[in-house]
Amino acid sequence: MAENRRTAKSDSAFRTISEAAKELGLQQHVLRFWESKFPQIKPMKRAGGRRYYRPEDLILLADIRTLLHDQGYTIKGVQKLLDQHKGKLPSEIAVTSLAETANASSADSPNTGVAANASFKTDKLMLTNLLGELESLQGILKLTLQDIKKNP
Questions:
Q1: pLDDT tens for residues 45-58?
Q2: What rounded mean pLDDT belongs to the chain?
Q3: How would you classify residue 86: left for phi > 0, otherwise alpha for psi between -120 and 50, otherwise beta?
Q4: What pLDDT does 35 receive?
Q5: Is-contact 75 35, C-beta < 8 A?
Q6: Is 70 exceeded by the pLDDT of residue 117?
Q7: What string of H, E and C letters represents the secondary structure of the chain?
């Protein structure tokens, strides 16, 4: 019972680096490394250097994770995106948010949110690939139609 109270934090609560890493499915050293690469990630630091991540830090970290791990961006690519958009990621690129993950998970099954999030990412990737294929087919059809018009 004490464990449930301890792990059940509100969405607006700050998270330690271990809680943030677990929630994001990353190692703690990855979060520390990303702090050195992305100045937009600024966890509060208390006495002794203990980090506390704000909810907006977690959302940014989740979006960076999605871009790097799922969408194939490089660190430099994500840095460029952040620089171009004044430290924020455009909503059409940053498709994953911690709020979606939290809403998808239930109290009875803490892994449901992770599974739903992974499913969402897989669906988005499949749809993006499908869109690319459809655009290619559209180009082929346009060329074929132009040829037909030139040579009836």
A1: 888 888 899 988 88
A2: 75
A3: left
A4: 92
A5: no
A6: no
A7: CHHHHHHCCCCCCCEEHHHHHHHHCCCHHHHHHHHHHCCCCCCEECHHHCEEECHHHHHHHHHHHHHHHHCCCCHHHHHHHHHHCCCCCCCCCCCCCHHHHHHHCCCCCCCHHHHHHHHHHHHHHHHHHHHHHHHHHHHHHHHHHHHHHHCC
Query: How many C-beta atoms surround the C-beta of residue 3 within 10 A?
Result: 7
Tokens of 125: 């990737």
Question: CA geometry: angle at 44 spanning 97 and 16, to 5°?
Answer: 65
The bridge status of strand 15-16 relative to strand 44-45 is unpaired
What is the spatial distance between Cα 24 and Cα 70, in angstroms, rounded to a whole number? 13
For residue 97, which phi and psi values (nearest 5 degrees)?
A: -130, 155
Residue 89: CB atoms within 10 A of its CB come to 20
